[in-house]
């Protein structure tokens, strides 16, 4: 992964990477990526875990774009419980300044990913979330209740 120079990662690579157990971070950091665009199946806890592993392995990450792609249909209704507890990171995303997440609908896994980004990015200035449908009151309330690491 250290030789990847592009700025876009497509979801098929996550299907490959998410087949087995992932480390918390990759053995060597990905120093060439600072503004990746990632397409992801927000219903797949394994793909989200793969993205979290990569986020911890990108020390120069400044901007992040996560784009929802069509669900594989293998989602679990109970998925997302304890997500943040399982994926709490001692390695903050120190360089991340802007995060944009497209296509959210308010599932537990999506909110867990947003919690991870907000809770581990002490210098985050802006986060944009774009829903797949007009936002509901419940989704807006859930987003506003998420604690941030940045002031």
TrEMBL record:
Pfam families cross-referenced by the UniProt entry: FBD (PF08387)
Domain FBD residues, every copy: 95-127
The protein's name in its UniProt record: FBD domain-containing protein
């Amino acid at each position: 992964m250290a030789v990847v120079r592009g700025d876009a990662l497509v979801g098929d690579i996550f299907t490959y990477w998410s087949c087995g157990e992932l480390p918390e971070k990759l053995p060597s950091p990905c120093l060439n990526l600072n503004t990746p665009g990632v397409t992801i199946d927000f219903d797949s806890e394994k793909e989200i875990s793969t993205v979290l592993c990569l986020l911890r392995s990108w020390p120069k990450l400044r901007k992040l774009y996560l784009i929802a792609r069509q669900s594989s249909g293998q989602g679990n209704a109970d998925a997302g419980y304890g997500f943040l507890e399982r994926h709490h990171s001692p390695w903050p995303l120190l360089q991340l300044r802007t995060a944009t997440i497209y296509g959210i609908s308010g599932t537990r896994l999506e909110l867990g990913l947003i919690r991870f980004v907000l809770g581990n990015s002490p210098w985050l200035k802006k986060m944009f979330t774009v829903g797949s449908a007009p936002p509901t009151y419940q989704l807006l309330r859930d987003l506003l209740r998420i604690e941030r690491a940045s002031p």
